[in-house]
Write a structure and sequence with these properties.
single chain; about 150 residues; alpha+beta; PH-domain like; 6-stranded antiparallel β-sheet; 3-stranded antiparallel β-sheet; 11 strands; globular
Length: about 150
């Protein structure tokens, strides 16, 4: 498993958000909405006009690491491991060709913000996948794709 901000490469797939919770998978065919306990919803690239990812960002490079350490320390002090629990506060808004909008809540990997660079890379990837059908073959090698986005 490899992560780059909100992107996660796991089991040969690319996901936005925590693949163990509410997330979307990016496939060559489209976006697959995965919500815990619900049937997956498939949105084909042929009906997607645009997709906009939104999450709080920071210019600090390691927000997940610092937040995890701080929340762990507070949990030990207050004996409450649920401090700062947030189910999701990232979203993906998809505009369909028929004019409908699909709003998707996404679970983040950690409490706090994401570093701005991978969030921008995630948005650029979504833009490219929706506009350039040939680029979708990049999703065949998720680990390599995330390495390319890191550059």
């Amino acid at each position: 498993m490899t992560r780059f901000g909100p992107l996660e490469a796991r089991d040969g797939r690319v996901a936005i958000g925590d693949a163990g919770a509410h997330h979307v998978r990016l496939t060559e065919a489209g976006i697959v909405v995965r919500r815990h306990g619900e049937e997956a919803r498939h949105l084909g690239w042929d009906v997607i006009e645009s997709a906009t990812f939104d999450v709080r960002t920071t210019k600090f490079r390691w927000p997940g690491t610092v937040t995890t350490v701080l929340m762990g320390a507070l949990g030990l002090i207050f004996h409450d491991w649920g401090i700062g629990e947030q189910d999701y506060d990232a979203t993906l808004d998809v505009r369909l060709s028929d004019g409908d909008d699909v709003h998707i809540d996404i679970t983040r990997h950690h409490v706090g913000r994401y570093w701005v660079k991978p969030v921008r890379a995630t948005q650029a990837l979504l833009h490219r996948l929706s506009d350039d059908p040939e680029s979708r073959m990049l999703l065949r090698e998720p680990e390599r794709l995330l390495q390319m986005l890191r550059m």
